[in-house]
Amino acid sequence: MALAAQQALEASGEQWTPLRASVFAALASFEAPASAYEVTEAVSSAQGRRVLANSVYRILDLFTAKNIVTRVESQNAFLVNAHPLHRHDCIFLVCENCGTTQHLDDDAAVEHVRAVAKTAGFAVDRPVIELHGRCHDCQAH
C-alpha cells in the first residue's frame, strides 16, 4: 500500500519524504480511522522524538487532497486509501457502538447522489457519504 501511495504522491509532483512516509506508516497501522492527534502520537513514538502536530496536520491535508487518505468527516479521522491511484468517492459505514468504519466503493450509488444534486441545481465538489448504525458484530450482541 505504501508503494501505491508513494507513486500517487510523486505522480502529482510532490515528494515522498521520510516524515510523509512515517505519517503514512503510522496511519496504516491503525485498524480504525485515526485522528491527527493519534497519528502524531504514533509518529512521535516511532521516531523516539516529539513530532509537531502542525506538520502531521499539513501532511494529512496533503494526503487527503492527493487521494492518499480519506477523511471520515463525522469522526474527524483519517483512513489510508487502498486505491490512491484511482480517484473515486467513498461511502463509509460507521458503527455507532464500537466505532469501526467500513469503506465501500459503489460508484453507481455515488453517481446517483451526484445526479440528484445536479437536478437540484447543485454542483458537488466532493461528496461525503456516511451511514451510521451498528456493524454486524454489534448487532449480534
β content, as a range?
A: 15-25%
Quote the distance from N terminus to C terminus: 34 Å
Known CATH architecture of the largest domain: Orthogonal Bundle
* Total strand segments: 5
Shape: globular
Mean pLDDT: 92
- What is the CATH first-level class name of the largest domain? Mainly Alpha
How would you name the oligomeric state of the polypeptide chains in this document?
single chain
* Residues in helix, %: 40-55%
| Count of separate structural domains | 2
Strand order of the largest sheet: 4-3-5
Provide structural commentary:
With 141 residues, this protein is α+β, with helices and mostly antiparallel strands. The protein folds into 2 domains: 2-80, Arc Repressor Mutant, subunit A; 91-139, Ferric-uptake regulator, C-terminal dimerisarion domain (Dna Ligase, domain 1, 2-Layer Sandwich), CATH 3.30.1490. It is built from 6 helices and 5 strands; from the N terminus they run ααααββββαβα. Strands 4-3-5 form a 3-stranded mixed beta sheet, with no helix packed on it. It has a two-stranded antiparallel ribbon with strand order 1-2. Strand 1 and strand 2 form a beta hairpin. Helix 2 crosses helix 3 (36-47) and helix 3 crosses helix 4 (53-65). The longest helix has 13 residues, at 53-65. The mean pLDDT is 92.
SSE arrangement:
Blueprint: H1 2-11, H2 18-28, H3 36-47, H4 53-65, E1 69-72, E2 77-80, E3 91-95, E4 101-104, H5 107-119, E5 129-133, H6 136-139
Parallel strand pairs: 3-5
Antiparallel strand pairs: 1-2, 3-4
Helix pairs in contact: 2-3, 3-4
List keywords for this structure.
141 residues; three-stranded mixed beta sheet; two-stranded antiparallel sheet; Arc Repressor Mutant, subunit A; Dna Ligase, domain 1; globular; 45% helix; 2 domains; 5 strands; alpha+beta
